[in-house]
Amino acid sequence: MSDTSDESVNTFYTKAPTRTITADGVTYAYRELGPKGDIPVVFFTHLAATLDNWDPRIVDPVAGERHVIAFDNRGVGASTGEVPDTVEAMAADAVAFIRALGFEEIDVFSFSLGGMVAQVLVREYPELVRRLVLTGTGPAGGKGIDKVAGTTYYDMARAALTRSDPKEYLFFNRNTTGRSAGRAFVERLGERTADRDKPIKVKALRTQLKAITRWGRSEPADLSGITQPTLIANGDNDRMVPSVLSEDLHRRIPDSELVVYPDSGHGGIFQYHREFAPVAVEFLTR
Fold first, then answer.
1. Total Cβ atoms within 10 A of residue 169
2. What is the pLDDT of residue 8?
3. pTM above the 0.85 mark?
4. How far apart are CA 122 and CA 128, in angstroms?
5. Cβ partners under 8 Å of residue 5, min gap 6
6. Is the pLDDT of residue 4 over 50?
7. Is the separation of the CB atoms in 100 and 32 below 8 Å?
8. DSSP secondary structure string, 161-173?
9. What does the pLDDT read at residue 1?
10. Interval 243-258 mean pLDDT
């Protein structure tokens, strides 16, 4: 367990300064917090997300114990370059970023599209990953993943009609509990008031959706070679990346652990942040 008694150690994501580093001609924007000196936990984010889309109620508890790094992939937010149209290229960019920071081993915390990138990373660069957290995600060729684009555009239109954030529709059930959780989640994302990231561009979003569609139509990958300890989590009613795919990952990754939260959707870990954050911290500090 890390020593966080030094008051100079920032463990609040809303206060983490935005930094940049250049690798292979791309300047990556990132934020880091928590006690340094240990293997870092690198956060891989979701479709259309920038640095401002991580829930501080998830990040902060992890940063209370571990060195945390979140970053914008190529062409997203304040990072330069063009968004890749394949998940595999996104993983190669992530490797370039991690190595530019000087790390030879990391733990991975991933959500949605980030979980797809993480799967490529752990298969193609197994020496780089020590522990793996996969949330709200699914394997290559997973049934229904190629429908993400249609679901996204549909829910963006629904959100526009009600002047809501699309994530309230995409991530949460449209019942009383889900609506309340969605509003609370969006409010938490707005807690950072200074040094906000640049919003994702429409072209970048479309390219990410193209990459996800390709992932969904890819040949299933062999995940039996993943030997890293793996924690998988989701809600039981994920409309974006169907919940059954979390169970599929659990079956296919040896000795993995699975947590499924009731009456929740794609953003189940955010709806149940009070329950999930301690599970994630225990897994990452085990």
1. 25
2. 81
3. yes
4. 7
5. none
6. no
7. no
8. HTT--HHHHHSS-
9. 39
10. 98
**Dihedral over Cα of 160, 163, 167, 168: its sign:** negative
With CA atoms as reference, report the closest residue to 46 among 266, 271, 273: 266
* Cα within 13 Å of Cα(249), Cβ side: 32
Measure CA 27 to chain center.
20
Which superfamily is assigned to 13-284 in CATH? Alpha/Beta hydrolase fold, catalytic domain (3.40.50.1820)
Cα–Cα distance, 188 to 171 (Å, whole number)? 14
Q: How far is CA 152 from CA 98, 147, 166, in A?
A: 30, 9, 8
What are the boundaries of each domain within the chain? Answer: 13-284
Please give the structure tokens belonging to residue 286.
């085990």
Mean pLDDT, all residues of the chain: 96
**pLDDT tens digits for range 99-120:** 999 999 999 999 999 999 999 9
What DSSP designation does 251 have? H
**Is the torsion defined by CA of 189, 47, 106, 138 positive or negative?**
positive
DSSP class of residue 51?
G
Whether the CA torsion 203, 46, 121, 251 is positive or negative: it is negative
Report the percentage of the chain scoring pLDDT > 90. Answer: 97
Which amino acid, one-letter code, is at 121? L
